[in-house]
Amino acid sequence: MKSDDTYLTIAQPSDEILYKEKNSKFFGYAFPVTTEEDVKQHLENLRKRHVGAVHFCYAWQMGTTQIVYRANDDGEPSHSAGAPIYGQIQSFGLTNVLVVVVRFFGGVKLGVGGLISAYRTAAQMALEQAEIVERTIKVHFIVSFDYKNMNKVMRVIKEKNLDVIGQKMELSCEIEIATRQKNAEMVQETFESLFEVLIQKL
């Protein structure tokens, strides 16, 4: 059962799948992504790989607390490609994922209904190939303190089992920590109750 501070995504790029419909070939791919730069890179790679393909239709969704998404028909009739691909991302309940379906036209027009069905099927097959994993939504904080208070800060980090992301240990120290979203408030309050220790959410 997925809890409030976890999300589903894919572990690594899926294997290429091929779906054929009336001589048209639809190659489907799913990639884990966290930035639009990732999306661009994957699309560029596929364009190099499939020279001669007519359409590179895709949809992506990113984010956990604030969701952003995009669906692109890449020259197919409006809502006949990107939307059904995005529909599959939603039906699998995924985020931080890009699904691309590359089409080679086979000379027979499929009509809008046929296109929707083909793009949806190729997207579904690509996601079925992918390994779906559950990840935790993390909240990051910076804890600032003088060196003399190091022990009490480290004690809390150990007791609360917090992830240390980075640290700067000089006369004044800074540690970046991460905790799962549902514990964030409690962690913040714990540090705020310590004398001479500052905590701020990133």
From TrEMBL:
<dbReference type="InterPro" id="IPR001498">
    <property type="entry name" value="Impact_N"/>
</dbReference>
<dbReference type="InterPro" id="IPR036956">
    <property type="entry name" value="Impact_N_sf"/>
</dbReference>
<dbReference type="Pfam" id="PF01205">
    <property type="entry name" value="Impact_N"/>
</dbReference>
<dbReference type="GO" id="GO:0005737">
    <property type="term" value="C:cytoplasm"/>
</dbReference>
<dbReference type="GO" id="GO:0006446">
    <property type="term" value="P:regulation of translational initiation"/>
</dbReference>
<dbReference type="InterPro" id="IPR020568">
    <property type="entry name" value="Ribosomal_Su5_D2-typ_SF"/>
</dbReference>
<protein>
    <submittedName>
        <fullName>Uncharacterized protein, YigZ family</fullName>
    </submittedName>
</protein>
<comment type="similarity">
    <text>Belongs to the IMPACT family.</text>
</comment>
<feature type="domain" description="Impact N-terminal">
    <location>
        <begin position="22"/>
        <end position="127"/>
    </location>
</feature>
<dbReference type="InterPro" id="IPR023582">
    <property type="entry name" value="Impact"/>
</dbReference>
